[in-house]
Amino acid sequence: MIFQAVGDGRPYPDHGYETTSHWSKVPPRQVRLEELTTTKRTLDLDALLAEDSTFFGDLFAHVVSWRGRLYLEDGLHRAVRAALHQRQVLHARVLTLPD
């Protein structure tokens, strides 16, 4: 299995980080794919296959840490691409929310 679980939506409270400039204040780190729970059930194949999928956005996936779990909020295509390349980690910005 690639991810810990596949979710449908964000179970955590709104954090207010909506733009790339908000997320750029969170330093990136490595996260194991098997520790992630997705917040989307479907993947846009155009995003997965596009060579310039990060050209207009953040280079790093966005992950929210809440109640001991890591939720992949943005960057599902990056995570699947990493798994297809047989990598077990993903570089992501991890925002920790209080419980």
Automatic annotation (TrEMBL):
Query: Domain of life of the organism in this record?
Result: Bacteria
Identify the stretch(es) annotated as Disordered.
1-23
Looking up InterPro entries in the UniProt record yields: VapB-like_prob
Name this protein carries in UniProt: Transcription regulator of the Arc/MetJ class
Q: Which organism is it from?
A: Kineococcus radiotolerans (strain ATCC BAA-149 / DSM 14245 / SRS30216)
